[in-house]
Amino acid sequence: MNFLTRFRFLPRVSTPKVMSFEDSVSRLGSAIKDLVASAAKDDPSLAGKSEKDQAEVVQWIEKVGQGDIVKADNFKDLNSVLLPRTYIATNYLTAADVALYGALHPIISKLQAPEYHSHPSITRYFDHIQSIPPVRKAADASSNYTLVSFDLVHTPKIDRTPEPPKKKEKKDKAATIDSASPPAPAAAATSTAEVPIDEGKIQKKEKKEKKEKPAVDAAKEAKKESKKGGGGKAAPADEGEPVPSMIDLRVGHILDVQKHPDADGLYIEQIDIGEETGPRTVVSGLVHYIPIEQMRNKYLVAVCNLKPANMRGVKSFAMVLCATSKDGKEGGIELIQPPENSKPGDRVYFEGAEFENATPLSQLNPKKKIFETVQPGFITLESKEAAWVNPATGSTHKIRTKDGVCVAPTLVGASLS
Q1: Which of 132, 179, 121, 108 lies closest to 155, judged by CA?
Q2: For the chain, what percentages of helix, strand and coil (3-state, to nearest 5) are there?
Q3: Angstrom distance (rounded) from CA 75 to CA 83
Q4: Contact between residue 387 and residue 379 where contact means Cβ atoms under 8 Å apart
Q5: Strand, coil or helix: what is 299?
Q6: Are 399 and 300 in contact (CB under 8 A)?
Q7: What would the pLDDT profile of 172-217 be if each residue is shown by its tens digit?
Q8: Where are stretches of biased composition, namely Low complexity (predicted)?
Q9: Gap between the Cα atoms of 130 and 410, Å rounded
Q10: How far apart are CA 58 and CA 55, in angstroms?
Q11: Which tens digits make up the pLDDT trace of 295-337?
């Protein structure tokens, strides 16, 4: 029986009615029960905001109470379950997360870097939950749940560089052709009796070289095309005038934020943008403009197809979209906010028939300066809504998700970058 079969569905045969939230909490170990009660004391929503959510919360608390879910043998399965999730039961913090955090704590607190790096989704989830204010407050009130520190800066990085197998094969083939054609003079250094045969071989080799030379040229051309910016559909996609729909914008959720150890003005964030590979490491120069408390657990808009850049020794795999006051940085910088109830990975796009259904580039070519060309049109309107104003036509295209328009909290007429 696999993990999901054992833990996702609860047996109903011996339970004539669904267990209440209070009953499920009462069956937890005393330390976890006190932790959940303390966190939920001032926030009734931790039990679930709807009947459906409450049922999910109860089910997950029961699973935690059974104990198997946090056994080391099941870490691989739990890591897979948490991979696409920010929270275990719903899309917001609940008592189920507090209970799971409490059950994981005695195990996670004993792990060293190689061990917790081997289960990145669990580590990311645990660190996020322990940093949320109501959980931290409840944990600090108990001697059982000290803050666990993780070395996230030196987490093994995920290689996001796409592999070019076809181009490599062509290159290898070209090298094989070059090395498979020995120089003709070597064949001429044979005895007089063998000359007619060797001449025939030489002629065949010359014909073969002439015949296969186009393949070498084709490999060289493929290499040239690769340097120009990729092949297939990606190459023509960034031709012509830069347009905003070339930019890949997505909803992100900050799971962890720390100050850069080697730069006073930089934050290092772990941002969930709904990818199976887990959160991206993002470096932002916001220390002097947005307090770290206002960065934690924040939902934002991320620019996801810029070329990764090294920022004081840490590679950044995205950019946080911010609004800067029309009076300059001193006037304030704010994170652009997606609509309420947005989820990590939600597509952010520009209104307008020519943009709404367009597919962004997989990666912006820095040499073509697409973002830099389009960016001057980014602005916040009188309504504080984020938009792109076409400099040629003056038309306004709001920046939105399927659930609504993205906004700056207070800034009007601000530039976005």
Answers
A1: 121
A2: 45, 15, 40
A3: 12
A4: yes
A5: strand
A6: no
A7: 544 444 444 444 444 333 333 334 444 444 455 444 544 444 444 4
A8: 176-193
A9: 30
A10: 5
A11: 999 999 999 999 998 988 899 999 999 999 988 888 899 999 9
Closest CA to 187 of 201, 176, 206: 201
Percentage, residues of the chain above pLDDT 70: 74
For tokens 């207070």, name the residue.
410
Residue type, 117: H
Mean per-residue pLDDT, 43-49:
89
**Alpha-carbon span 165 to 215, nearest angstrom:** 17
Cα 270 from Cα 42, distance rounded (Å): 29
- Answer left, alpha or beta for residue 238, where phi above 0 means left and psi between -120 and 50 means alpha: alpha
Q: Is the Cβ–Cβ distance between 171 and 219 less than 8 Å?
A: yes
Cβ–Cβ < 8 Å for 78, 3:
yes
What's the rounded Cα separation, in Å, for the pair 159 and 177? 32
> Can you tell me the distance from the alpha carbon of 314 to that of 321, in angstroms, rounded to the nearest whole number?
19
In sequence order, what DSSP letters do the residues of 333-358 get, joined into one string? EEEPBPPTT--TT-EEEESSHHHHTP
Distance CA 359, CA 366 (A): 18
CB 36 within 8 A of CB 98: yes
Residue 137 tokens, joined:
């407050």
DSSP 222-288: HHHHHHHH-STTHHHHT-SS--GGGS-EEEEEEEEEEE-TT-TT-EEEEEE-S-TT-PEEEEE--TT
